[in-house]
Design a protein that fits this description.
The complex is a heterotrimer.
Chain A lengths: L1 H7 L17 H20 L3 H23 L2 H35 L5 H5 L6 E3 L4 E3 L5 H32 L5 H14 L3 H16 L6 H26 L2 H9 L4 H29 L3 H7 L17 H10 L5 H33 L6
Antiparallel strand pairs in A: 1-2
Helix pairs in contact in A: 2-3, 3-4, 4-14, 6-9, 6-11, 6-13, 7-9, 8-9, 8-12, 9-11, 9-12, 10-11, 11-14, 13-14
Chain B lengths: L1 H20 L33 E8 L4 H14 L2 E7 L3 H10 L5 E4 L5 H11 L4 E16 L7 E2 L1 H8 L9 H6 L11 E5 L4 H13 L18 E3 L1 H11 L3 E6 L7 E2 L1 E4 L2 E3 L3 H11 E3 L10 E3 L13 E9 L5 H15 L1 H11 L6 H12 L3
Parallel strand pairs in B: 1-2, 1-3, 5-10, 6-7, 6-8
Antiparallel strand pairs in B: 3-14, 4-8, 4-9, 4-14, 10-11, 12-13
Chain C lengths: L2 H12 L4 H37 L6 H4 L9 H37 L5 H13 L2 H27 L16 H25 L3 H9 L4 H30 L2 H6 L20 H8 L6 H29 L22 H9 L4 H5 L1 H4 L2
Helix pairs in contact in C: 2-12, 4-7, 4-9, 4-12, 5-7, 6-7, 7-9, 7-13, 8-9, 9-12, 11-12
The chains are: A mainly alpha, B alpha/beta, C mainly alpha.
Chain lengths: 366, 379, 363
């Protein structure tokens, strides 16, 4: 409406390229307008936040492209429509993110305390007079389990992953059959479904140790299968970013290849490698199905990854929901507490990765 | 592989290590156990038995129905035998429990069904000629839970339940439900049946009940996996309970001890409608069980004949969960320890603890006495 | 990129090999070989466990006749509906996620304020950081009730479409709910790869289009899309690979039955997925039943392998020759986005490149 007015009032002297354009601040009018209209629609249909957002977006899209079609031209209208559309797509993706984080935080924050982090579950005792159980509730066993299992998985995956990357980048001739095969197999490995990795570890350990083969080690093996390809790819990429000049300069000085790699190539790429590894850890730390298959779960504390079921945070979140104790509400709230701890851990790992990247960012960029 | 053989050695070492750090719960080799005291599994007055001299680790697992009771029993037993550690792994389910037991890695298995002939044969390879014995230690009932706004009390006959769960009745104001509930106004809300999506002993018991009592309506198989399409299948007893609670016009089945504050239907037995009570379950078990056909000496596997449950004081869908153990252990000390623990479970105090903390029904006195008899032969 | 390892290789011959050198070379080669061993191990163990169940007679074997695997005459009749359900649920998730993901990628790469681009990318990557079990809990608590009215609406007004027919869910445990949650989970994968690919469009092409008077959308349509097509296709396929293997969220949300059904709004007629079926039934399964479940895992492995291979194939394919600048097959203008970069973006989810070189994102 105001747009039409502005086009009528356009100064005569402007050149033809800016003719028939909507004012720059058109969104200041269309957005609130759409919002009010959407609110009115909601008033008719019954209120709901998602509906409000959806109708605002729809009305805005219709309004902006309609206005543009009238005032400007079809091409501009299309452009404005698409701009609105991709922006809505982005905002739409924020909804589940905000909703998930909000749900986890609001449900989990009540449980979270130093006591929850610092004590172990499963230490149930009984009051001999009333015969009532006193359940100790805490997540220490799950935190320890998560750290040990992902720690072991990292211990297995990083040497294999890094050395494979070094082989691929530094040693193998591009056409060598082993390089091509390994390249292909790393791709294949990326596609292994997590539950299949769990089944693999379970089958492997039952074959060796008999049917009760649950252990943290077994879960770590399962996670390694998922982690290795990620580590190989990110290390490979980082090693490739190291300029060939550096290597050749080292060779020219008569430095051996081994020393060149260890003293020149890896230090140059170390930030990227560390970032890639941290992100790989963040990826596997939240895996549930493979750990549940391989390490089972327990409410009791088990700090020994070599024998017996181990509790982890994702499995604790899952089992708190699926196998609640007598006090169902308590079990469910503990599940949320574990979920919140897990999300915090993953977010922290992601931040750490970025901090590593920021601090050690290489002077040379590509 | 080097890591693994190291692991075995380390497992033994860590028993000590863990003791030092004050952390229990290591499910490692149980052969390190020693039973210093004499076997207490003699009398039914188990509260008088002194367990304090026992020590060692019991490794077990299986039925998740028993899980809460096992947690209570472990705590109760530990209060009297402080040197004993009990690990009951509830993630395994009955199937996993039996599998691990027959492979020799459990001291006993918790299972919602007694061993099949095949499994018993496998157990015999492990336990020697005496084989394994099934001891019914945990009683509960399958509750038919519902959420129908405006309706607090619901009465259902087996035929009606069978019709509902086989998707033959679609709305709450169906004539069959009305006939069971004279004087109650039932809405025309659609019925949503909620069942288990995972294999479960509860499903096994429930389908067995429908199969026996309403064979004309229930033509689907008896199975631990829900056999009829068209229901809302949810994961775990908690999934069923949560979904029934969240929905409207929902009906489902779950172990009574796990239903929380949900309403359960009274089930028709004979001419009366019987609500769940612990006492009614005990009565039902007294009335309806007969020793299983191929039971060995000392084996207390029971077949439930649901059709016998026609009296007004017996709950029509009882659920029995067993602890299964060898008659002959490789290690006599371990045998004493395990027998003492299961003796405690079947004792008056054990049953009281489970009733209080897990909502189970107490064992009939006769059955409890038989369990203690059977345990005497475990060596 | 491939030129320089070759140089390195040649120069290694020039440098005299010392023991440490030889050992290190041996070690890194051994690591590469170990990848082959691990993968062979995964396949071998699954096959070893699966073969007895596949070979068994499902109508006479006591273990298989009842319970978890009861009612199926053979392994293949058991796994077929599961395989269908796996693909079906993932496809719906992809149909929901792909347009949104491409929109987001485009927003971040070509529409958002430049200074914000890296940050916005990080926000979307945060979605990838949420563990699947958390999505499962969230799906049960939030998404099930939230999507219920929409599903009733679809069933009432669009029930004549077979997909939306049947008796509508009353608790929300339908395939559609599961697929929406799956869509949220694959969104960051498709987005991050598409974003990387969009950003690699040669700057010159874009500027040329703009200089000719194209609007931003026309520039995107004429320069970015033709260039990025294969990259986006493979991004979608990699997203599919992720959706296929998703376990916990699906197991917690969808009410399954082992049947072949296209319906997405019902409660009792949802096709089951392989991964969820394993997670739900593995604990109670005994003997051969476990082997049968491992067998279905093997089938899942093969399916996701196939999807991943196709994805890689699409990525590494040379871009088609283009004849007309405006047409679908235009002039020989563009080089393919480097496969290695695209793959790295997909594997690390959050590409270390974009972390280290924010300028490459916020160009």
């Amino acid at each position: 409406m105001s747009a039409a007015a502005s086009t009528v009032a356009r100064p005569a002297g402007r050149n033809r390229y800016s003719t028939g354009s909507l004012p720059r601040r058109i969104n200041l009018y269309t957005l609130p307008g759409s919002f009010i209209l959407a609110a009115a629609v909601m008033g008719l249909l019954g209120f709901n936040w998602f509906g409000l957002a959806a109708f605002t977006a729809l009305i805005y899209l219709a309004a902006i492209s309609g206005l543009s079609l009238v005032v400007e031209n079809r091409r501009r209208a299309m452009d404005r429509f698409i701009r609105g559309l991709v922006t809505s797509a982005f905002l739409l993706a924020l909804l589940p993110l905000v909703s998930t984080l909000w749900t986890v935080v609001s449900k989990g924050i009540g449980v979270l305390s130093w006591e929850f982090i610092g004590t172990s579950g499963g230490g149930t005792t009984i009051n001999p007079d009333t015969l009532e159980l006193v359940t100790s509730s805490g997540a220490l066993q799950a935190i320890v389990g998560t750290l040990e299992i992902t720690g072991l998985a990292t211990l297995f995956s990083v040497p294999i992953g890094l050395l494979t990357a070094i082989y691929l980048v530094e040693y193998a001739a591009p056409t060598h059959w082993l390089r091509r095969t390994v390249n292909f197999l790393v791709d294949v490995m990326t596609g292994i479904p997590s539950i299949v990795a769990g089944l693999f570890a379970f089958s492997l350990f039952t074959l060796i140790l008999g049917p009760k083969a649950f252990s943290g080690l077994s879960a770590a093996v399962a996670l390694s299968v998922l982690m290795i390809p990620t580590v190989v790819r990110s290390c490979e990429e980082m090693l490739r970013l190291v300029p060939a000049d550096l290597r050749e300069a080292a060779y020219a000085l008569g430095v051996t290849k081994f020393v060149t790699i260890v003293k020149v190539v890896i230090p140059t790429a170390i930030a990227g490698i560390a970032t890639g590894i941290t992100l790989a850890i963040a990826r596997v730390i939240g895996e549930t199905a493979p750990i549940f298959m391989a390490a089972s779960f327990t409410d009791a504390f088990n700090g020994n990854p070599l024998a017996g079921p181990m509790q982890t945070l994702p499995v604790m979140a899952y089992t708190g929901y699926k196998f609640p104790g007598q006090d169902i509400a308590l079990s469910n709230s503990q599940a949320w507490g574990a979920a919140l701890l897990l999300v915090l851990l993953v977010v922290v790992l992601n931040l750490v990765a970025r901090i590593i990247a920021a601090i050690f960012a290489p002077k040379t960029s590509r | 592989m080097k890591v693994l053989s190291f692991g075995r050695a380390a497992a033994v070492l860590t028993v000590g290590m863990l003791a030092l750090t004050g952390c229990g719960g290591n499910a490692s080799s149980s052969s390190t156990s020693t039973a210093a005291g004499s076997s207490p599994a003699g009398s039914t007055a188990a509260a008088a038995t002194d367990y304090s001299s026992l020590s060692g680790t019991i490794t077990a697992g299986g039925s998740s129905a028993q899980a809460n009771a096992q947690a209570a029993w472990a705590a109760g037993f530990k209060a009297q035998a402080s040197k004993v550690t009990i690990n009951y792994d509830k993630s395994q389910g009955s199937g996993g429990g039996v599998t691990n037991f027959t492979a020799g890695s459990y001291d006993f298995a918790g299972s919602d069904a007694y061993l099949t002939a095949d499994q018993a044969a496998k157990a015999q390879e492990l336990c020697g000629p005496g084989g394994a014995i099934n001891l019914p230690v945990y009683l509960d009932g399958v509750a038919v839970i519902f959420n129908l706004p405006g309706v607090d009390k619901l009465q259902l006959s087996a035929e009606t339940i069978a019709k509902i769960f086989s998707q033959q009745i679609k709305t709450w104001d169906d004539a069959a439900i009305k006939a069971d509930n004279p004087g109650v106004t039932l809405p025309s809300t659609a019925i949503t049946t909620v069942t288990r999506s995972d294999g479960s002993g509860t499903t096994q018991n429930f389908t067995n009940y429908l199969h026996q009592v309403a064979p004309a309506v229930w033509t689907d198989p008896v199975s631990n996996k829900w056999p009829v399409a068209g229901s809302s299948a949810q994961q775990g007893g908690s999934g069923v309970v949560n979904t029934v609670k969240a929905g409207e016009g929902t009906i489902g089945y779950a172990d009574h001890s796990a239903i929380g504050d949900l309403k359960a239907a009274a089930i028709k037995a004979g001419d009366a409608y019987v609500s769940f009570s612990a006492d009614a379950v005990t009565k039902a078990v007294e009335a309806a069980v007969t020793p299983a056909a191929n039971a060995k000496e000392g084996d207390l596997a029971q077949d439930i004949d649901y059709t016998k449950l026609t009296s007004a004081n017996a709950y029509p869908i009882p659920l029995i969960s067993y602890d299964i153990l060898c008659t002959t252990f490789k290690d006599p000390a371990q045998a004493k320890l395990t027998a003492a623990y299961i003796g405690y479970i079947a004792s008056e105090q054990g049953q009281k603890i489970a009733a209080k903390n897990a909502g189970s029904a107490p064992l009939p006195a006769e059955l409890a006495a038989k369990i203690q008899e059977s345990l005497k032969k475990v060596s | 990129m491939s030129a320089f390892p070759a140089t390195a290789h040649r120069s290694s011959a020039a440098v005299r090999a010392r023991p440490a050198d030889r050992i290190f070379r041996l070690l890194s080669t051994a690591a590469a070989v170990s990848i082959m061993v691990i993968l062979a191990g995964v396949a071998l163990f699954l096959i070893l466990r699966a073969v007895p169940a596949i070979a068994a007679n499902w109508t006479s074997e006591a273990d298989l006749k009842s319970g978890v695997t009861g009612g199926f005459p053979s392994f293949w009749s058991y796994v077929a509906p599961l395989a269908f359900g796996t693909v079906w649920a993932s496809l719906i998730a992809l149909i929901l996620a792909t347009p949104v993901a491409i929109g987001i990628a485009l927003f971040i790469s070509h529409y958002s304020p430049r200074r914000l681009a890296t940050f916005l990318g990080y926000i979307i990557d945060l979605l990838a950081a949420v563990p699947s079990v958390v999505f499962g809990l969230w799906g049960i608590l939030v998404m099930r009730p939230f999507l219920l009215p929409m599903q009733e609406w679809l069933n009432t007004y669009l029930g004549w479409i077979p997909m939306f027919s049947g008796s509508v869910t009353s608790t929300g445990s339908s395939i559609l709910t599961g697929a929406v949650v799956l869509a949220v989970m694959v969104l960051p994968i498709i987005t991050s790869i598409s974003r990387e690919v969009f950003l690699q469009t040669p700057k010159l092409h874009e500027e040329a289009a703009l200089a000719l008077g194209a609007t931003r959308w026309e520039m995107v349509r004429l320069t970015v899309f033709p260039y990025a097509r294969s990259g986006v296709v493979s991004a979608v396929l990699l997203g599919l690979g992720r959706a296929l293997g998703e376990t916990m969220a699906v197991a917690m949300i969808i009410s399954p039955a082992i049947i072949t059904s296209f319906r997405v709004l019902t409660e009792g007629e949802n096709s089951q997925t392989i991964a969820s079926n394993i997670a739900l039934n593995f604990p109670i399964a005994t003997g051969l039943q476990r082997d049968a479940l491992i067998g279905t895992g093997l089938v899942l492995f093969v399916i996701s392998l196939a999807v991943n291979m196709v994805a890689r194939l699409v990525i590494s394919r040379k871009p088609r020759q283009r004849r007309r600048p405006t047409g679908d097959d235009g002039g020989k203008a563009t080089a393919a986005p480097d496969p290695a970069d695209v793959l790295a973006a997909s594997d690390a989810r959050v590409s270390p490149v974009s972390v280290l070189h924010p300028e490459s994102v916020s160009k």
